[in-house]
Amino acid sequence: MENNLLKLNGVSHSFLQNTLVISIGKDAQFADRIIFSVDEIETESIEIICKEDSNAKLLIKDFNENKKITFKIGKNAEFALNFISIDNVAKGKYHFILEENSRVVAAMADLAKGNINIDVLFDLVGDYSSAEWHLASLGASNDNKVFNINFNHMGKDTNGIMANYGVVEDESFMHFKGDSHIKKGSIRSKAHQSAKIMVFDEKCHAKANPILKIDENDIEASHAAVVGKVNDEHMYYLCSRGISESDAKQLITFGYLKPIVNYFADKNDVDFILNGIEKRL
Fold it and tell me: Angle at the Cα of 118 (from 112 to 123), degrees rounded to 5?
């Protein structure tokens, strides 16, 4: 895969103590999403700096379990990160550090076969910084998938949103965990979490453990966790219309996971995800 991030005007890179440091310049604006091929990078540590007032969209399609990637998002910068885990299983550790009035939207479509154990941390350091995490994941066969997503609210008026949606079938296992921590002094901050996993078969297992840690009074926080079987009425309605139980199961799963494409702007990426859902079903 072409690693075109390193070839763009307005982007520089250097090596510092066995870390590849990539800088997206001040005021740089990239309307199209940028492909970043992690496996092509030899160092285990990568640091991506989005300088003040920059705007970039990054797509990761390949992964490496040894990689730790740190994103430093400068003042007033906007950054979108997309993960597509279909042909390659998602791996690695991802750390976001947000300065004043910066914004990050991260979304992962996980339809890969195999085991996942991924860590994502958002540090909302600057006042008025904002971060969102959106996930759609499908577990089937003997997949074992664990997602650990954490938010630290440090600045004032910060906003953190986490939305995890999953489907488990056969003998697979899925676990959504992580916490949102509003620290002392982070007044008027908002933290909202939702974790929902649909369970289809008796031998599959799922856990959802969203946690709120609140050290400040003047805040807004909520969380919801739902793990359960598919709605019997929905299955009955579809089957009563002549749809087989297997096809009904596929339709429900498709409808449950499809909304993740709303966070992918590139049409080729959207088609790739939708085709990936259909093939996995």
Answer: 135
Q: How many alpha carbons fall within 13 Å on the CB side of residue 109?
A: 27
What is the number of other CB atoms lying within 10 angstroms of the CB of residue 261? 19
Q: Residue 3 — pLDDT band, cuts 50, 70, 90?
A: low
Separation CA 162–CA 99 (nearest Å): 19
Question: How far is CA 257 from each of CA 17, 27, 280, rounded to the nearest angstrom?
Answer: 41, 35, 12
Angle (deg, nearest 10), helices 245-257 and 232-240: 120
Find the Cα–Cα–Cα–Cα dihedral 161, 222, 97, 128, rounded to 10°. Answer: 90
The span from the CA of 253 to the CA of 136, in Å, is 11
Q: How far apart are CA 221 and CA 204, in angstroms?
A: 31
What is the spatial distance between Cα 105 and Cα 14, in angstroms, rounded to a whole number? 26
Q: How far is CA 183 from CA 9, 42, 127, 219, 241, in A?
A: 39, 36, 13, 10, 52
66 pLDDT tier (thresholds 50, 70, 90): confident
Torsional class of 45: left (φ above 0), alpha (ψ -120 to 50), beta (otherwise) = beta
Radius of gyration of the chain measured on its C-alpha atoms: 19
DSSP symbol at 42: -
